[in-house]
Every structure is written in C-alpha cells, then in structure tokens.
C-alpha cells in the first residue's frame, strides 16, 4: 500500500473511532435511534479499509516482473467484464440473456 493509501486508511479508522465514541455518548445522553445510526455509520469506514486492502492485494497479485503495472481501477473493470454473461445481459442490466446464452431461462418456464 502506498503512502496515500495508508493515509486514507488512517483517516477511515479515525472517522470510525470518532463515530464509535459518538455512539457511546449518544447511548448515555441521546435518543437510542441516533445511537443505532452512529453505530451503523461507524462500520462504513471499516468497510472502506477492507476495500483498500483488497485493492492493494489485487495490485500486488497483478504486478508481476514481466507485466506492466495496472491500476486498481483497471483490475476492477477487468473483473466486472469477466463476470459479465452475454451482450444482451450486459445491455439489459442483467434482466435478459441472448437466445443462445446457456444462462437463458426459456419464457415458457419462467414464473
Ligand atoms: Zn447471458
């Protein structure tokens, strides 16, 4: 992880800590619904740290000695394109498949 990634993770964790302490204060002096809201919000920066770590791992896995380094965004787009089914699936936002696609469910058996 580069310096900006580490700084971002530190900011995420500081934000999460601040929201967690606000949760405790709200539990003792505020409405319970606000405490639940702050507790849920304090988890979101932790998810961001996990995402940053995943991006770092993807970059490390793809940075071989013979391959040029790709950006993490390139890797994410590459994975999304690899996970796509057929062209109709892509253009219909996953609602339908091409006639020859093996993932197509015939309309007669659709509920
Ligand atoms: Zn398909």
What about the largest sheet?
Answer: none
End-to-end Cα distance: 48 Å
Return the average pLDDT rounded to an integer.
85
Strand fraction equals under 5%
List bound small molecules.
zinc ion
What share of the residues lie within helices?
55-70%
How many DSSP helices?
4
Q: Summarize the helix and strand pattern as letters.
A: HHHH
Q: Enumerate the spans where pLDDT stays under 50 for 5 or more consecutive residues.
A: none
Question: What structural class do you assign from the helix and strand content?
Answer: mainly alpha
Count of individual domains: 2
Q: Let me know the number of strands.
A: 0
Question: What best-fitting shape do the alpha-carbon axes yield?
Answer: flat
The gyration radius over C-alpha positions equals 22 Å
